[in-house]
Amino acid sequence: MRRLMLLRHAKTESDAPSGRDRDRRLDQRGHADAAEIGDYIARHPPFPDLVLVSPAVRARQTWELAWTMMQARVPKPQVEWVPDIYGAEVMQLLHSIRIAAGLDPRRLMLVGHNPGLHELALALTGSGDAAARRELARNLPTSGLAILDFEIDAWDDVSFGRGRLVTFVTPKLLKHGAGD
User: In CATH, what number does 2-12+23-175 get?
Assistant: First the structure.
């Protein structure tokens, strides 16, 4: 059994002072939402062993804020900054997951961006909670977290339609009592 956690970065400012998309930072809501998702993860084991994070400022900030909320209750995972996750399409993201096979984590988290993460979640999901699947089909919003389980022995075997969507949460759904 392998678990994949896909976390989209939190809400950001419209433009970075540098004008570069990679430099956009989290806005006030983004800070709060990233912390809320981190708290959610800390209360719902199992936890990631390895976290692959896009080097974009907003993805790094999302992970750092989430980790701040998790660190008192969660064993520290190995964290890698992976340039290929920034702006990645589905096949690039799938390649990053398969490369993780070399480190052999049981539970892997990716912190990245849409549309790639959303498209990957949809492509990998073959079964799971019907309500969660409907919500995920609509969108993977900022700070959205999709958790999929795979009945496989190695990350090399991850393929489309083989994942079971275990959980889909967003700060908005958490505020309305879903996901607890």
Answer: 3.40.50.1240
| HEC letters along the chain | CEEEEEEECCCECCCCCCCCHHHCCECHHHHHHHHHHHHHHHHCCCCCCEEEECCCHHHHHHHHHHHHHHCCCCCCCEEEECHHHCCCCHHHHHHHHHHHHHCCCCEEEEEECCCHHHHHHHHHEEEECHHHHHHHHHCCCCCCEEEEEECCCCHHHCCCCCEEEEEEECHHHHHCCCCC
Q: pLDDT class for 13, splitting at 50, 70, 90? A: confident
pTM given for the model: 0.95
Per-domain residue ranges for the chain? Answer: 2-12+23-175
